[in-house]
């Protein structure tokens, strides 16, 4: 069993050195397992040559591609801690993460260099890739030339921290989820025990999911490392282009999010393009049952679903655990081997079958609490309360009903309403604001903002445009409200809290 996640790569390079590991169609590049392993060694040596030691953080603000995979695996091989960040995040968000985790090095590329430079990155060395360096910066290539002569040897401790992934939780600001090598490897092995395999040695895997998200990082890249499957890395989603790529590259495993299913369900050539696919996986957000059925009718492929969260590295359940068992369209499958799932009532007792209650999970794949002190992690007994509400149906499958927390999940990414409200509240002319999530066919959920103007005679369209401008400047695209409703006031509960249930009703009633 590997101790460091990069050990999977070492084994693949030794046993299948000439097989292709990664393909990048946009640049027509590819690496064999031996080439990838050697490159990861060089970059790990480089980082250690900069004076970094085990436990130091390295932020990766990069788009999907071979270079990001190399940088990520090199960080782990050197015993360092990777902090993947959304390359489309605005400078404010990048600066907040950097201030929180204090990375020694930030590696970025042309897609994100501008935001990184605008952010407060005091104390961090910036290494840019495929863009001209500014004063005080290094290029990623030049950084590699400064490598040390030492062989990168990570501490042989599976409990050492591997990744900090920032995700919105029960507080207004995103928190860093601490994932150890033990947690990452455990989930890879748990999924690897499913038969037939989710990803097998002969598979070609679509690398469309962003690698700053745990789904793409560990459920796709990590699983492919274990199985020595080739990953075809895609920078962005274009329905036609990706379908052509799937056919041209003979891709067999398609891990995607619901927006991709939605786009393909309306595409006339999807059945032909996916003729060689073995499995279609949807995760990161809830998939509408009617959409899943429509996609199956159009494509000829049943969509396999799952449930996971960053704190679980991420896979908790999947319909692939028992592909022959009866299933209802609203379920997300059965626990993967090695993971326990219970639904418990408010007293902590297991709920009766069919009764909704909070989902609790336990397994070696769970995180070690939130950065930096490990607060909020699993209890002493190993169980973790997810904040999600679910039921166990008659066939033992989990179905999700609701969330205790106010998180809105847009295309698989968590958005905490308070974070959006904080930004909108600073818009000139806004007196009050409340944000809710609403179902959306394309993204699972969408952000809706209700704003109350400071003056009754305010120009509604002008106020909406002002809110949109502030959100564009300060929020990542998926966090921005897709609808802004100007209201005379906000409804409140008897205790004085904003009645967000009523706001959701108003959103449904408002065209």
Automatic annotation (TrEMBL):
Gene3D superfamilies: 3.30.300.30, N-terminal domain of ligase-like. GO terms for biological process: fatty acid metabolic process. Keywords: Ligase. Residues 9-371 form the AMP-dependent synthetase/ligase domain. Residues 419-497 form the AMP-binding enzyme C-terminal domain. GO terms for molecular function: medium-chain fatty acid-CoA ligase activity. It comes from the Bacteria. Belongs to the ATP-dependent AMP-binding enzyme family. This is Long-chain fatty acid--CoA ligase.
């Amino acid at each position: 069993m590997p101790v460091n996640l990069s050990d999977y790569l070492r084994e693949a390079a030794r046993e299948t050195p000439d097989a292709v590991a990664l393909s990048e169609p946009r640049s027509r590049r590819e690496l064999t397992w031996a080439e990838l392993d050697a490159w990861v060694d060089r970059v790990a040596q480089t980082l250690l040559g900069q004076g970094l030691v085990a436990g130091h953080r390295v932020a990766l603000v990069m788009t999907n591609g071979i270079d990001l995979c190399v940088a990520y695996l090199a960080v782990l091989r050197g015993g360092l801690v990777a902090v993947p960040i959304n390359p489309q995040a605005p400078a404010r968000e990048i600066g907040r993460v950097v201030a929180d985790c204090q990375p020694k090095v930030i590696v970025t590329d042309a897609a994100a260099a501008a935001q990184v430079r605008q952010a407060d990155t005091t104390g961090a060395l910036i290494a840019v890739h495929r863009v001209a360096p500014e004063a005080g910066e290094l290029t990623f290539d030049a950084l590699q030339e400064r490598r040390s002569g030492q062989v990168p040897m990570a501490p042989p401790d599976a409990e050492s921290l591997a990744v900090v992934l920032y995700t919105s939780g029960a507080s207004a600001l995103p928190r860093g989820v601490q994932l150890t090598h033990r947690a990452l490897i455990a989930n890879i092995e748990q999924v690897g025990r499913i038969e037939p395999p989710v990803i097998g040695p002969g598979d070609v895997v679509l690398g469309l999911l962003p690698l700053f998200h745990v789904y793409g990082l560990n459920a796709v890249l990590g699983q492919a490392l274990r199985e020595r499957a080739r990953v075809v890395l895609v920078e962005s989603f274009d329905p036609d282009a990706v379908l052509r790529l799937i056919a041209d590259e003979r891709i067999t495993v398609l891990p995607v999010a619901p927006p991709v299913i939605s786009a393909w369900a309306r595409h006339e050539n999807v059945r032909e393009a996916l003729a060689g696919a073995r499995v279609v996986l949807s995760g990161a957000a809830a998939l509408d049952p009617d959409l899943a059925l429509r996609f199956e009718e159009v494509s000829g492929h049943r969509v396999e679903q799952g449930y996971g969260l960053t704190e679980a590295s991420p896979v908790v359940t999947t319909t692939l655990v028992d592909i022959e068992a009866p299933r209802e369209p609203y379920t997300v499958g059965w626990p993967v081997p090695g993971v326990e799932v219970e639904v418990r009532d408010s007293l902590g007792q297991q709920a009766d079958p069919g009764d909704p209650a909070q989902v609790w999970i336990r397994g070696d794949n769970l995180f070690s609490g939130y950065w930096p002190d490990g607060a909020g992690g699993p209890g002493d007994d190993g169980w973790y309360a997810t904040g999600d509400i679910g039921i166990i149906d008659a066939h033992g499958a989990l179905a999700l009903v609701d969330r205790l927390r106010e998180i809105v999940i847009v295309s698989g990414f968590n958005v905490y309403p308070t974070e959006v409200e904080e930004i909108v509240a600073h818009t000139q002319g806004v007196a009050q604001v409340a944000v809710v999530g609403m179902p959306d066919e394309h993204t699972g959920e969408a952000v809706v903002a209700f704003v109350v103007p400071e003056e009754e005679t305010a120009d509604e369209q002008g106020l909406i445009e002002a809110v949109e401008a502030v959100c564009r400047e300060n929020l990542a695209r998926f966090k921005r409200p897709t609808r802004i409703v100007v209201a005379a006031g906000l409804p409140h509960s008897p205790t004085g809290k904003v009645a967000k249930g009523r706001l959701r009703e108003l959103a449904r009633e408002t065209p």
